[in-house]
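I'm stuck. Protein, please.
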Amino acid sequence: MEPLPAAYRWLNSHVPLPKIVTAALEQLGTVEVPGKANSSVIMGWADEVGVGAIGYRYTGDDVPWCGLFMAAMAKRAGKPIPAGPLYALNWAQFGDMVASRASLDTAKPLRAFNGRVPSLGDVLVFRRPTGGHVGLYVGEDANAFHVLGGNQGDRVCILRIAKARCVAVRRPPMSIPPASVRPFQLAAAGALSKDEA
């Protein structure tokens, strides 16, 4: 694990964090291996969640792995994994609805459900030019969500993704959410991600 970037060290003072966030932060800095070799950590996630056993085969870390990362972190946090977890857009069926767009259409407005707002630890599902992306809400600024996720520039890191690309916000099932499950307004530092692959 690499240390939290300075802009996100405030997370250390908001414990307990949602279990899924804690699990994901422990993987910060995990990178895929260039070329034909594979990261043993990333391939271990595939074994951990049994993607071969549920009808999906993960063949190497050159295959998009944001959904695989989320599946491993959900499992470690004791949360159910959606069907077809390797496909990022399938995470729009995970947990409880916080907000969504009609038919995953980014031209439609993102609408809140039952007054909920995106909060720390929520699963964010995005459209991207060649499919989807999934990660965890760490915070937000006026135009972007700050997303902790895998396969973001071939690594586990936190980056900014435009809110306009978000198609669903889902809350992991929790009997009693920790007090840290709330929105966090952050500075708009750093460039917006264009395509997380």
Remarks:
- The mean pLDDT is 91.
- Residues 7-187 form one domain.
- Helices lie at 19-25, 40-49, 66-76.
- The longest strand covers residues 131-140.
